[in-house]
Design goal:
By secondary structure, this protein is an alpha+beta fold. The chain has one domain: Alpha-Beta Plaits. Helices cover about 40% and strands about 30% of the residues. It has three helices and four strands; from the N terminus they run E-H-E-E-H-H-E. It has a four-stranded antiparallel beta sheet. A hairpin with a 6-residue loop joins strand 2 and strand 3. The chain is globular, with a radius of gyration of 15 Å.
Length: about 100
């Protein structure tokens, strides 16, 4: 079953530009992992430093393999030094998708 992983990251404002630059360089690496279909980075409009990553995976097993990889572990170790609050994460699946089709 295809899943979506949502991760909320609260980062120090002085680290945000470094994080954004790093994400730009690393997003292709994330996409190269087995089962990764999409990856997106969302920034809060009013709270600088509040970010959300949204990724879709073919399966929870693919996500877990990525999370256990040395590459992810080293990246996470670097980023977590700059958290201003505990990160939150949810693994979800779509119950229903509704699309608006213009006439």
């Amino acid at each position: 079953m295809k899943i979506t992983r949502l991760v909320k990251l609260s980062l120090s404002e002085d680290y945000l530009d470094t994080f954004l630059s790093s994400f730009e360089k690393k997003k292709q690496q994330i996409l190269s992992y087995e089962g990764c279909l999409t990856v997106d980075l969302l920034l809060d409009n009013t709270n600088k430093g509040l970010c959300f990553t949204v990724s879709t995976w073919k399966s929870e097993g693919d996500l877990e393999a990525y999370r256990q990889s040395d590459w992810f572990q080293s990246t996470w170790k670097e980023v977590k030094q700059h958290f201003t609050d505990k990160p939150e994460a949810w693994t979800t699946h779509s119950q229903e998708t509704i699309q608006n089709h213009p006439e």
